[in-house]
Amino acid sequence: MINIVLIDDHPLATNGIGAWLNGTGRFTVCGTAKNLAEASVLMEKLENLPEIIILDISLGTEDGLDFIPMLKEICAKRNVPVPGILVCSMYEDPFLIQRAIDSGARAYVSKSAESGEILTAIDALLEGGFYINPRYNIENPKHSWSLLTRRENEIVACIKQNMNNKQIAKRLNIAIRTVENHISHIYYKTGAASREELLEL
Hints:
The chain is α/β, with parallel strands linked by helices. It has helices at residues 11-23, 36-45, 67-78, 94-103, 115-126, 150-160, 165-172, 176-190, 195-200, and strands spanning 2-7, 27-33, 52-55, 58-59, 62-63, 84-89, 107-110, 131-132.
């Protein structure tokens, strides 16, 4: 049996996907977590890390992708390979998908995907490969985001989620003025002149 951990802040999603995975006869859900703290504790507690982790981007006010560097650190300490990470999210924005892959995820599936696509993604991970639906077309992104800092990328991700400056400041625990300064730098680096233009990149 393939061990899987689910990290999602919606119990309905966790229970539904978990029951379906267990019902396939191929997988065992060996743990769930609804935030970064629970996920970290779970990873430390598990004697053997799972082969697959299914991770949501949005964990309440937390960025689920922040879990990936935490996981890499845990794996480095244990001297074990990093499990295959499948990001399963309601967001289908190519920027967020690219950011997930850049962070270390190797598969990305929409929460609206059919079960067969999730199985395809899991099988690709188990074989050491990647899975992203071709319709997302992230092989040729409209803009290279490599010039942006990690914090600037986080702010762009928040903007893509239609968050205003106050909400971004609260999410990232920084001052609104700091958010405004970062956005100015983002505009300069990307050539965008407004939030609307940034959303189109």
